[in-house]
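[recover] target loaded
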C-alpha cells in the first residue's frame, strides 16, 4: 500500500482552517511508526492560543493534549505493521477516549474545559508557529480522517475501518487516503481541502513483477484472458519497465496488421525503434514520450464506445486520443505479455502460425482488464493502492 513517509523533519498541513469550537470530533488515522525512543506527534490543531494534539508515546501508548490537559491511554498499540488509531473528543459529554482500531484503549478521560481552537490540520508535527520549535513524527501514515462526530468503536473499527471511503460518509469532514504516490499534495476526498507535503515523501512498496528476457519469447495468457467485442467498453492497464536494449512487444494478441488472420479483433502494444506504438487492424498511433528509460511506467487505455473515443495514458497523463468507430474488439489470437504471435493465411488456404522477432526484455506487472471505461479517479486509485 502506498503511504506517506515522515522522516522526523516533515509534515502534512492544510491551507484550509477548521473551527472546532464546541464540536464533537473523531481524529482517525493509520500509522506505522519507527522506533525512536521518544514521544511523537501524529496530529495537531490550534493557532489561537489553544492546542489539540494526538501523540504516540515512546512506549507506544496514545496521548491526547487538549490545551493544558494531557491524557494517556491505558494500553499500547502493536509495534508491527500499520495500525488504526483514533482519539474521540466528545464535547457534549466533556470526555476524551482513545481507540485502537475498534477497541477502546481504556476508560474515557474527563475534560475540564471545552476546546474552541481554530487553525489548519497538521499531521506529523506539533502546531507551533515557529517550525524550529516543533516536534515531529517519524514513520509512515495513511487513511487520515476527521469526523464531526464522537464515534464509537463499532463505527471506527468495523463500519469504516480497514477500507477506502467514498468521501460522502455521514459526518466525514476531511479524508486523506494519502495514496497518490506522486506530487506534493495529498488530496482531500470530501471538500477538496488538499494538504501540502512539507519535507515528507511517498513510500512505495516493493513488489514482485514478471521479468522477461528476449529468449523467453514472452508469457502466453489464457485465450479468454482478454475478451471484449467491438460493442464493448473496456479499460486495459499494466506497468512496464524496459530499456533501449530491451525494447519490444509489451502486450498483444497479434500484430495489429490488417492482413493477418483474425485481424479485426487483434491489437499490439509495443516499441518500434524508440517509439511506443498502439496497433489494431491496420490502425496505428504513437504514444509520444521516452518510455524505454529503464524506469517503471504505467500504461492505461480506455475505450468508450458511446462517446466514440479511446484515450491512452502513461503515468496518469493523457498522451493520445482517437476515435473508435473503426476499432474492433479484443478476442482470439495469442494473448502474450512481452512477445507477438500471429496467424497468416497462406495462398493454399493453410494457416501458418508465426512467432514475431520483437520479444521484450524487461518487467511487466499488474495487468488489469476492466469491462468499462474507467473515469480518472477510480483508475488512478487502482494505480497506487
Amino acid at each position: 500500500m502506498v503511504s506517506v513517509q515522515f522522516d522526523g523533519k516533515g509534515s502534512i498541513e492544510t491551507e484550509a482552517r477548521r473551527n472546532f469550537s464546541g464540536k464533537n470530533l473523531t481524529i482517525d488515522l493509520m500509522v506505522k511508526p519507527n522506533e525512536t525512543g521518544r514521544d511523537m506527534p501524529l496530529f495537531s490543531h490550534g493557532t489561537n492560543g489553544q492546542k489539540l494534539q494526538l501523540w504516540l508515546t515512546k512506549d507506544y501508548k496514545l496521548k491526547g493534549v487538549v490545551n493544558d490537559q494531557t491524557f494517556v491511554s491505558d494500553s499500547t498499540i502493536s509495534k508491527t505493521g500499520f495500525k488504526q488509531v483514533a482519539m474521540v473528543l466528545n464535547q457534549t459529554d466533556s470526555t476524551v477516549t482513545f481507540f485502537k482500531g475498534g477497541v477502546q484503549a481504556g476508560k474515557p478521560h474527563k475534560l475540564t474545559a471545552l476546546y474552541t481552537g481554530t487553525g489548519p490540520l497538521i499531521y506529523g508535527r506539533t502546531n507551533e508557529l515557529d517550525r524550529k520549535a516543533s516536534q515531529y513524527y517519524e514513520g509512515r501514515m495513511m487513511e487520515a480522517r476527521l469526523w464531526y462526530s464522537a464515534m464509537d468503536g463499532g463505527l471506527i473499527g468495523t463500519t469504516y475501518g480497514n477500507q477506502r471511503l467514498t468521501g460522502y460518509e455521514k459526518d466525514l469532514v476531511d479524508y486523506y487516503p494519502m495514496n497518490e504516490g506522486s506530487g506534493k499534495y495529498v488530496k482531500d476526498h470530501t471538500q477538496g481541502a488538499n494538504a501540502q507535503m512539507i519535507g515528507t515523501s511517498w513510500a512505495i512498496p516493493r513488489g514482485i513483477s514478471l521479468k522477461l528476457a528476449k529468449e523467453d519469447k514472452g508469457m502466453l495468457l489464457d485465450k479468454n484472458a482478454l475478451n471484449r467485442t467491438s460493442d464493448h467498453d473496456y479499460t486495459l492497464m499494466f506497468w512496464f519497465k524496459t530499456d533501449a536494449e530491451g525494447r519490444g512487444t509489451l502486450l498483444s494478441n497479434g500484430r495489429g496488421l490488417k492482413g493477418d488472420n483474425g485481424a479485426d479483433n487483434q491489437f499490439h502494444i509495443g516499441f518500434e525503434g524508440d517509439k511506443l506504438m498502439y496497433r489494431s487492424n491496420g490502425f496505428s498511433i504513437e504514444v509520444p514520450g521516452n518510455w524505454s528509460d529503464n524506469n517503471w511506467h504505467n500504461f492505461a487505455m480506455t475505450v468508450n464506445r458511446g462517446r466514440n473515443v479511446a484515450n491512452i495514458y502513461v503515468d496518469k497523463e493523457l498522451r493520445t486520443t482517437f476515435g473508435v468507430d473503426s476499432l474492433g474488439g479484443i478476442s482470439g489470437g495469442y494473448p502474450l505479455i512481452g512477445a507477438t504471435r500471429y496467424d497468416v493465411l497462406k495462398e493454399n488456404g493453410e494457416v501458418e502460425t508465426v512467432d514475431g522477432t520483437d520479444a521484450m526484455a524487461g518487467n511487466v506487472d499488474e495487468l488489469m482488464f476492466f469491462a468499462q471505461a474507467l473515469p480518472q479517479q477510480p483508475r488512478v486509485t487502482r494505480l497506487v493502492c
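[recover] notes: Helices lie at 153-159, 376-384.
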